[in-house]
Amino acid sequence: MHPDELLSLFDRQVRFEAEDPLSDRQESPGVVRIAPLDEGARWGWVIWSDLTEANADAAIRAQVDYFVARGQNFEWKLFAHDRPADLGARLLRHRFVEGESETVMALDLRDHADLGGPAPHDVRKVTDDAALREVARLETTIWGNPHNWIVTELGAELLLPGEPTVMYLAYIDGQPAAAAWIRFYEGTQFAALFGGSTLPEYRERGLYTALLQVRAAEARRRGYRFLTVDAGEMSRPILEKRGFIALTTATEYKYYVGQKRD
Known about the structure:
The chain is α+β, with helices and mostly antiparallel strands. It has 2 domains: 3-103 and 250-255, Aminopeptidase (3-Layer(aba) Sandwich); 113-242, Gcn5-related N-acetyltransferase (GNAT) (Aminopeptidase), CATH 3.40.630. It has helices spanning 3-17, 56-70, 87-93, 129-143, 149-158, 207-222, 235-241; strands spanning 23-28, 31-36, 44-49, 74-79, 97-108, 122-125, 165-172, 175-184, 190-198, 226-231, 245-255. The protein is globular and about 55 Å long. The termini are far apart.
């Protein structure tokens, strides 16, 4: 599939149509937002927009008003091809804070039968609270800020019927060394990769690839065709070697209603 066609399919199925079982998907003119059912959750999101110069500012104000009324921080995820072209600048004028930009990458599993074989390391599915706490501890150590939300928010996802989210821990000599998870968007052809974080002392030992292998295998088993990932600079070269292609870039714009809660 041509990259432009794949991007269009991604926009429609993942950004516009996909449902989140723990959130309320809401459409308004030119915008799709995700409002967590738990109003105490860390973040809400604007995940899709198609605006014009004439209506962009009003749409931004409407989203700000909605989440301010909930008392909830939210993130507007801006993709490079979203309109209008100056949407990022408009968000900044409305007191959003620009965050990281990542490369949105995708892989067609039909074209890469080699991906998804046995993982070359000890990779285990997270199935209990103790392992989930290990993931939170590992991510906190790697990134230097608390990741307790993994226990609460991702923990709730792991309990949902049908396992729309699956998490894995990779071990070296019996010690947790890396973690990653995958979300399956029901009714679409896409599964999304998250995490892929490794403790510094265990890097360059193939753990990232091992976690990629096991997640690709699960996606293939469930009949999903495409894997997607928002890749940082460290991950992109590894993914390119595995056949992932760049579709676009995405930048997070965060609006803090109250105290900053990352």
